[in-house]
Amino acid sequence: MTEPQKDPLVLFMPSGRRGRFAKGTPVLDAARQLGVYIESVCGGRGICGRCQIEAQEGHFAKHGISSAADHLSGVTEAENRYAEKRVLVEGRRLSCQALVEGDLVVDVPQDVQINRQIVRKRAETRVIERDPATQLCYIEVEEPDMEKPLGDADRLLHALEKEWGFQKPRIAARLLPQIQKLLRDGEWKVTCAVYTDGRVEGGGPIVTAIFPGFHNVGCGLAVDIGSTTIAAHLTSLLSGRTMASAGAPNPQIRFGEDLMSRVSYVMMNPEGRTQMTKAVRDAIGVLIAELVQGAGITPDDVLEAVFVGNPIMHHLFLGIDPTELGGAPFALAVSDAVSLDAREIGLPINDGAHVYVLPCIAGHVGADAAAVTLAEGPHRADEMTLVVDVGTNAEIVLGNKDRLVAASSPTGPAFEGAEISGGQRAAPGAIERVRIDRETLEPKIKIIGGDEWSNEEGFEKVAQDVGVTGICGSGIIEVVGEMYLAGIIDEDGVIDGSLAAKSERIQPTGRTFSYLLWRGDEAAKSQEIKILQTDIRAIQLAKAALYAGVRLLMDKLGLEQVEAIKLAGAFGSYIDPTYAMVIGLIPDCPIDKVKGVGNAAGTGARMALLNRSYRREIEEVVRKIEKIETAMEPRFQEHFVAAMAFPNKVEAFPNLAGAVTLPPRKVLGGGEDGRPRRRGGRRR
C-alpha cells in the first residue's frame, strides 16, 4: 500500500518559518498561518501590490526542499493588470494571487517588509581621528595657452602638485576621455578625489573622480557582512560623521542557516557560488540605494568602501569559491587585505571608488574578527582581555599587548532563534527579556517594541499592537538562565517534571517536559510559546561549543581566569552579561568587567575607512595573532562535555556566585523525562 502524499512544504525567508499546506493555498494565507508578516492593504484582490514575494529556484539541502517558480500557480489577470499599471519586478509574484502547487522556498523581499527584522548593528559612537585614503582637493587649473602646449590632464596634475604637495600624482585612465569637458564645465576650477593608500597598481596618489567647480561632499561606506545580517554605514570622509545606517537580513540564509551548509550548497550546485555572490551583492546594492537616498546625496558622492566579514562571507562577496574552507586545512584563497575598484564587483557607487577588505586572521576567523580586534584593541591593553563576536560562528580573540591567540567556534544559529521551537530573529513582538518568580515559577516578559514588563500597565496595548510572536536570542539566554536559577532545570539541563505538581507551567510533552512561557491569544496576535527540552539541548550545544573554544585559548596562554570580557556583535550587545555567565556561555569574570561593545566589526570597518594608519595597524597585528584550530585540539571534547552543564561541570564561578544566588545542585532523571534515575552503589 502506497503512503499518502504529503502536502507541499513551504519555507519563508528570512524568518525561517515553515509549514505544510494543501495545494491551492494562497501563499499569503500560508504566511499568515505561520505568523510571517506580509502586508496586504487591498484584502487579497491583487490591487495594492504590497504582498510581493519571490519563489527561489534550486535544491536547498539544508532544508530538504527542492523549490521552483513553477511550484506556484500561473500568473493571474490581476497580476498582469498590476504589472501594466505599476512595476512588478521580474520573478516576483503577488502572494495573494500565487497558489502553492509544490515545495517552495519563498523570499519576502526586504524592500516590501514593513515589520521586518530589526537589524541591531548600529554604528557605535566613537570619535575617530581622520586620515582617509581618499581626500577631496579643490584646484584652479591654468587655461590652455598656445605658448605652453601642455595637455589639460598634465596641467591638472601640475596644479595638484603645486597646491596640494602630491608627489607624482596620476589620473585614472577611465577619466582621461572626460577631462576636457569636466574642466570646461567647471571653468577651470575642479574638485578632485585623490586616493593615497598606495595599495593599487603603480602606487602613489591617483585621481579617482573629478567634479566641476567646488564640491564638498565625499562619503565612504563601512559594511559588515554577517552570515545572518548585513549592516552598512554611510560616513562623511570630511567630518567623520555617520550620515546614515541601514541593515538587512543576509539573503544567503535561503541557501543555509549556517556557514558549512552554504559551503555544502556550493559543492553540490554548479551555480551555487554565483547565486550566493549575486545575492549578497544585490542586497548590498539595495542598502546603498537606501543610504544614499536617506542622506540626500548621489551615488557618485560615495568615493570609498570598506568591507568586513567572516571568511566564507568574505570569499563569497569577492566571488571566490569557499569550498576549501569546508574541510581541513581550511585554506583561505587570500588572507591579506584586498584592494580593488568598486566597478569590478558592481557596486552602485562612484566608478572610481576603491574598495578595501580587511585581512582575515585564519580559515574560520575572518576580516570581521580583525575589525573587532582593531576596534577593541586587546593588542593595546595590559589586562588579559577576551573578545567574543557572538554569532552563527563565534569568533574569539584572547590576550593583551604581549600576545594574542584566536579561534572560532561553530555555535550554530540557536542564539539567533533558529532550531528553537518558539525562536525568531529580533523583530517587533519577540520576547527579549524574561524573569521567573522563584516561588510560583510564574514568568514576566518584555517584548521588542515596548519598555513595559508583562505585569505592568501598558504592556497589553503593546502586545495588541505587535503581538507576542516568539523569542529572540537575548530572551532565549535569559529564559534558560532563569529556569536554572529557579530550579526548573538542573545543572545538566533536564527539566524537573516533579515541579508539575507545583505549577501548571511545567507540562508533560511526549517523553519529556516543557515550560509554558507565554499563553497564546489569537485575538491579540500572540502565539503559545513553550521552552522544550530540545530547546534547552540546542542552547547547551551552542554555548558549550563557544566555551570550549574560549577554554582552549586560555589553556594556550596558561590562564585560569580572564580579566575582562567584551561581547561584540548585534546579539552580543543585547545579552545580559550576568545571564551569559549563568548559562556558562562565557568564563567566570568580575561582572563589572563584562560588557557589550556593540557592532565592533562595523566600528573597526569605519576606523579603517577614516584613517589609513588603522589599515596598516590591523595588517601588522593579524600577522602576529596565533591561530588555534579548535577541531584539531585534543582537549576540545573534554572542555565541550564539561561546558554542557550549567554553568559548568568542573569549573568554579566564584565571581558569579558572589553576584547571584546559584541553586544547589540537584540530581534529576537519567533520560530526558525528569524522573529520578537509578544509581548503582551504596547510598551515602
Describe the structure.
Residues 664-684 are annotated as: Disordered. InterPro entries: 2Fe-2S_ferredoxin-like_sf, 2Fe-2S_ferredoxin-type, Beta-grasp_dom_sf, Corrinoid_activation_enz, Raco-like_middle, Raco-like_middle_sf, RACo_C, RACo_linker. One of its GO terms (molecular function) is iron-sulfur cluster binding. Residues 8-112 form the 2Fe-2S ferredoxin-type domain. It is a single chain. This protein has 684 residues and is α/β, with parallel strands linked by helices. It folds into three domains: 9-112, Beta-grasp domain (Ubiquitin-like (UB roll)), CATH 3.10.20; 117-357, Domain of unknown function (DUF4445) (Nucleotidyltransferase, domain 5), CATH 3.30.420.480; 369-449 and 463-669, no CATH class. Helix content is 27%, strand content 21%. It has 17 helices and 29 strands. Strands 14-13-12-15-17-16 form a six-stranded mixed β-sheet, with helices on both faces. A hairpin with a 4-residue loop joins β1 (9-13) and β2 (18-20). α8 packs across α14. The longest helix is centred in the C-terminal third of the chain and has 25 residues, at 533-557. It is globular, with a radius of gyration of 28 Å. The N and C termini lie far apart (58 Å). The model is unreliable at 114-121 and 670-684 (pLDDT under 50).
Low-confidence stretches: 114-121, 670-684
Question: What share of residues are in beta strands?
Answer: 15-25%
**Cα Rg:** 28 Å
Strand order of the largest sheet: 14-13-12-15-17-16
| C-alpha termini separation | 58 Å
Number of helices: 17
Query: What's the number of domains?
Result: 3
Helical content stands at: 25-40%
Number-wise, the strands total 29
* Largest β sheet strand count, sense and barrel closure: 6 strands, mixed
General form: globular
